[in-house]
Amino acid sequence: MSDKPVILTDEASGKSVELPVIRGAEGEPTLAIKGVPKELGYFTYDPGFTATASCSSAITFIDGGNGILRYRGYPIEQLAKQSSFIEVAYLLLNGELPNRAEFTEFRKDITYHTMVHEKLNNFMAGFHYDAHPMAMMSGVVGSLASFYHDRLDMRDPEQRMLAAKRLIAKMPTIAAACYRHHMGWPSSYPQNRLGYTERFLDMMFSVPAEDYQVSEVAARAMDLLFILHADHEQNASTSTVRLVGSTGANPYACVASGIAALWGPAHGGANEAVLTMLEQIGDVSQIGKYINKAKDKNDPFRLMGFGHRVYKNFDPRAAIIREAAHAVLDDLGVSDPLMDLARELEQIALKDDYFVERKLYPNVDFYSGIIYKALGIPTSMFTVMFAIARTTGWVAHWLEQSANPTPIGRPRQVYTGATERNYVGIDNR
């Protein structure tokens, strides 16, 4: 799988080192630079690790230039159209699509583990009423380690898979509990007669005072969003889970660290930023003004939810979710000036030469924010929705790493502080 090595020569010393070329199944060739410090005395400098592969993985492939996203080799377009989130979860964890018996057993396992320990409700009650849901979620998920620590043998593949299934099953229950605590509503328990997304929506919005009927369109849109957000290769939160996992930490601590990383507005908070932007624009009549501001390099205003750091051509998930977003709005008959504003902004941006030439198309964050708002999910919960879906990717990577242990993550640094100096007593400073 390797090509002829690349020779790196230090002209100052005349020393050279061979850098093996590693090729994966797809994607750019990669230089193995491990020998550079020993042979040449240099470390490499790559802020953000944007040009460095930290691991090898068989889970997700992305080609940003060509707008390609595949889970275990399957194009995201096919999975979104023909699959379900539970089937995709099985695929990510196990590497292959399940047959009917395997799917039934996996779905049964996920359904069985939806309940959380009742003492977690006491833990949840300790949060302030207006605590951010992501703060609650990271705390509660981390606390799961205290419930299962004596029954998790990290060396046992079956025990690792059980922990992965527990996390996928319990995450919607925890997320709904965070929302209901914020709303001051009584606890809601999972109805295992329902499917994964239907069960989650029921836990979110059902109240003792009246019946709640889950919209099929809403459930399918949520399922679709979960598929699209399930994994995205070595992003910041997944890399965080892997880094923590390299220490041998239990999976609940690893996933809690991923939740913390996802919370950042530069990562999981992007769809929340879309709604904030729409509120800033305020009215359809102001779109032209803000379009011009977005084109002005000297203006700090940016159109959030347009373009993507990875997808330089188009986000393959956006075309899929766009149709679902419009279906949800039509089915629910939502009448919201902000939704009208979003639709109008979408149409203008798709036709404006400035955005077309720069390929600044609406991305998955733009449409997911619209769907969440249409479903009545508050902005503070948007990143929580993301975390429910991404948990599957996190545990898939954790399982992969645990089966093939790697050295503990230990990045280097370029030190820019003071050189050696002598201590001076406080009276002489």
Task: Please render the helix and strand layout as text.
Blueprint: E1 2-9, E2 16-22, E3 30-31, H1 36-40, E4 60-63, E5 68-71, E6 74-75, H2 76-82, H3 85-94, H4 100-112, H5 119-125, H6 133-143, H7 145-148, H8 157-183, H9 196-205, H10 216-229, H11 236-245, H12 251-262, H13 270-281, H14 287-295, H15 316-332, H16 337-351, H17 353-357, H18 364-374, H19 382-403
Antiparallel strand pairs: 1-2, 2-3, 4-5, 5-6
Helix pairs in contact: 3-19, 4-8, 6-8, 6-12, 8-9, 8-19, 9-10, 10-15, 10-18, 10-19, 11-12, 11-19, 12-19, 13-18, 15-18
Folded structure, characterized:
A hairpin with a 7-residue loop joins β2 (16-22) and β3 (30-31). The chain is mainly α and 429 residues long. The protein has a 3-stranded antiparallel beta sheet with strand order 1-2-3. A 3-stranded antiparallel beta sheet has the order 4-5-6. The longest helix is centred in the middle third of the chain and has 27 residues, at 157-183. The protein has helices at 36-40, 76-82, 85-94, 100-112, 119-125, 133-143, 145-148, 157-183, 196-205, 216-229, 236-245, 251-262, 270-281, 287-295, 316-332, 337-351, 353-357, 364-374, 382-403; strands at residues 2-9, 16-22, 30-31, 60-63, 68-71, 74-75. The chain folds into 3 domains: 2-53, Single Sheet (Rubrerythrin, domain 2); 74-266 and 378-402, Orthogonal Bundle (Citrate Synthase, domain 1), CATH 1.10.580; 270-374, Cytochrome P450-Terp, domain 2 (Cytochrome p450-Terp, domain 2), CATH 1.10.230. GO terms for molecular function: citrate synthase activity. The active site is at 308, 365. This is Citrate synthase. Belongs to the citrate synthase family.
